[in-house]
Amino acid sequence: MRPVSFDIDVLRSFVYGVQSGSFALAADKLARSTSAISAQMKKLEAQVGEPLLRKAGRGLALTEAGEQMFAYAQRLVSLNDEAVFAVSQASLQGWVSLGLQEDLSGFLPSVLGQFARAHPKVRVQARIARNAELLSRLDSGALDVAVVWGEGDGRPGERIADLPMRWIGSQAQPVMWTAGAAAPLPLIMFDSPCPFYAAATRCLEATGQTWQVSFTSSSLQGLSAATQAGLGYTVRTRLGLPAGNRLVDEQAAGLPPLPSIALTLCYRQARHSAVVMRLASIVSEAIQAQLS
């Protein structure tokens, strides 16, 4: 039997289509016609020997084979791009300092490893910190680029995504609070300033719901542990949701709806080096892949 060799261009169209939720958007991004993308998907399904997509309402969803293929396609496209950049930008060198949110610590270190392998002449210094500290370090010049919550307060940057804030509770332990009761809602939060703290308390006060901070910590790990123990509710996004925590059905729990928050790549200055641009691109792509 002749071995099957997947076409990277076809896999890239597949990955972009799934990530964006629309193969028409993928066609625009790749500067191809929708009919060309459709032909690529038919070719890929023929190679796999299984349907990869199924109708779901007005859109498309992945089949079981599609889920498997999508995971492999992401890896193959990523490895292809890593090889291309390693060869074509072998001369890329310098120093770059990156600031990250703790919510990203579960998957971004492996992305930094990929970057280091592709660009051995580049030295990367990464720091995980809270939003206010990251913004302060950008202003002082200690960081070249940082992933921050919010729009960066006028700093140079580019939005990665808009994510709905969510109430988060324990998977196993109920919170000892009932909507409509006299007792205040127990909150698990970072100290102010924190965009999630500010948004949650604004929404609670707008509905007349009393609240109190029952647990605070300087680390997201501490907040997650307290949430898992059922000491109260916290507020984050679905990105990097820790084990033992769950997204709460706000209507069922009697909690007010929360707004969305931007996740933004902010730069120290408007003009940045090729090293900073390349690392920022890899980080943005990794986050978008995690959200797809």
Automatic annotation (TrEMBL):
Keywords: DNA-binding, Transcription, Transcription regulation
Domain HTH lysR-type: 6-63
SUPFAM superfamilies in the cross-refs: Periplasmic binding protein-like II (SSF53850), Winged helix' DNA-binding domain (SSF46785)
GO molecular function, a single term: DNA binding
Source organism superkingdom: Bacteria
Similarity comment: Belongs to the LysR transcriptional regulatory family.
PANTHER family xrefs: HTH-TYPE TRANSCRIPTIONAL REGULATOR LRHA-RELATED, TRANSCRIPTIONAL REGULATOR
Protein's recorded name: LysR family transcriptional regulator
Lineage start: Bacteria, Pseudomonadati, Pseudomonadota, Gammaproteobacteria, Pseudomonadales
